[in-house]
């Protein structure tokens, strides 16, 4: 494989969602913290998820992840202690890129981007084969430079909406997205939760669709086939994002393949 040119990155993301839709299901989007459980094992962990994924999120470990629950926080702390940095995360992408056509998305808070330098970060991300960025703590109306640099380097952008987002905010955020829209299922942090209650998520998904034709993926709280089904069928999401459940499985020494297969089975419409 060769690194795709800039316009193709966004197209590849959209094509992944479309392929899943053509198969009658929501796209399966696993998340894993870069360098977890350690730098030697991370590539194999990522490969196990990539074998089943439609898209994959790779998180840059960060010391102050305000939107992450305790499971992902622990993974990030362990990865940082083991020496996983922003640049090392991008090197992991460089290593994975020749092995897969699955879109690779970097999930990062904005501080690591500024620590490297926005121009340098975007250049490196494009160079190693990143397809898009998910920026949970960047209001899209607060930093035009980041959006302009990402666009210049052909990187798709995804921002988050939540049940607490006002209609005006949903409109602003969805119109700023170029990859897909990330709808947070609950108010709070990431992590598996008890029950399958959707609350306001179906309405949030429909509200986002009033302002964009991009896919809408839902994350936070998905842990098994039942919760995936609630997101794919109950909320009508185009994608199902799962992170903490996989990290918890690794913490308990469990293989990821069976859990990924189970969750994927719940993505059907």
From TrEMBL:
Q: Which residues form a coiled coil?
A: none
Q: Which PROSITE patterns match?
A: TRP_SYNTHASE_ALPHA (PS00167)
First-level EC class: lyase
Please list the residues that make up the active site.
Answer: 57 (proton acceptor), 68 (proton acceptor)
Question: Which EC number(s) does UniProt give?
Answer: 4.2.1.20
Pathway-wise, it operates in: Amino-acid biosynthesis; L-tryptophan biosynthesis; L-tryptophan from chorismate: step 5/5
The GO molecular function terms of this record are: tryptophan synthase activity
Q: Which CDD domains match?
A: Tryptophan_synthase_alpha
UniProt-listed InterPro entries: Aldolase_TIM, RibuloseP-bd_barrel, Trp_synthase_alpha_AS, Trp_synthase_suA
According to UniProt, the reaction catalysed is: (1S,2R)-1-C-(indol-3-yl)glycerol 3-phosphate + L-serine = D-glyceraldehyde 3-phosphate + L-tryptophan + H2O
Keywords (A to Z) from UniProt: Amino-acid biosynthesis, Aromatic amino acid biosynthesis, Lyase, Tryptophan biosynthesis
Q: Which Gene3D superfamilies match?
A: Aldolase class I (3.20.20.70)
Question: Whom does it interact with, and what assembly results?
Answer: Tetramer of two alpha and two beta chains.
Its function, per the record, reads: The alpha subunit is responsible for the aldol cleavage of indoleglycerol phosphate to indole and glyceraldehyde 3-phosphate.
Among PANTHER family, the record links this protein to: TRYPTOPHAN SYNTHASE ALPHA CHAIN, CHLOROPLASTIC (PTHR43406:SF1), TRYPTOPHAN SYNTHASE, ALPHA CHAIN (PTHR43406)
What is stated as this protein's family in its record? Answer: Belongs to the TrpA family.
Q: What is this protein called?
A: Tryptophan synthase alpha chain
Report the source organism. Deinococcus sonorensis
């Amino acid at each position: 494989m060769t690194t795709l040119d800039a316009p193709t990155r966004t197209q590849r993301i959209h094509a992944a969602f479309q392929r899943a839709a053509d198969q009658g299901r929501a796209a399966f989007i696993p998340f894993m913290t870069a360098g977890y459980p350690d730098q030697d094992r991370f590539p194999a962990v990522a490969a196990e998820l990539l074998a089943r994924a439609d898209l994959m999120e790779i998180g840059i470990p960060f010391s102050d992840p305000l939107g992450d629950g305790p499971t992902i926080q622990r993974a990030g702390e362990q990865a940082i202690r083991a020496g996983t940095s922003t640049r090392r995360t991008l090197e992991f992408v460089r290593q994975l890129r020749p092995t897969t056509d699955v879109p690779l998305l970097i999930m990062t808070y904005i501080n690591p981007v500024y620590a490297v330098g926005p121009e340098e970060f975007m250049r490196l991300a494009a160079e190693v084969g990143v397809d898009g960025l998910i920026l949970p703590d960047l209001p899209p109306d607060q930093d035009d430079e980041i959006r302009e640099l990402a666009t210049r380097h052909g990187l798709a952008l995804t921002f988050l909406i939540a049940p607490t987002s006002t209609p005006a905010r949903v409109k602003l955020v969805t119109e700023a997205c170029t990859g897909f829209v990330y709808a947070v299922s609950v108010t709070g942090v990431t992590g598996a939760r008890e029950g399958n209650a959707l609350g306001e998520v179906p309405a949030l998904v429909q509200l986002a669709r009033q302002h964009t034709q991009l896919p809408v993926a839902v994350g936070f709280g998905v842990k098994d086939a039942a919760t995936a089904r609630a997101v794919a069928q109950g909320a009508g999401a185009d994608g199902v994002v799962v992170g903490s459940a996989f990290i918890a499985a690794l913490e308990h020494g469990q293989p990821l393949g069976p859990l990924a297969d189970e969750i994927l089975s719940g993505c059907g419409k």
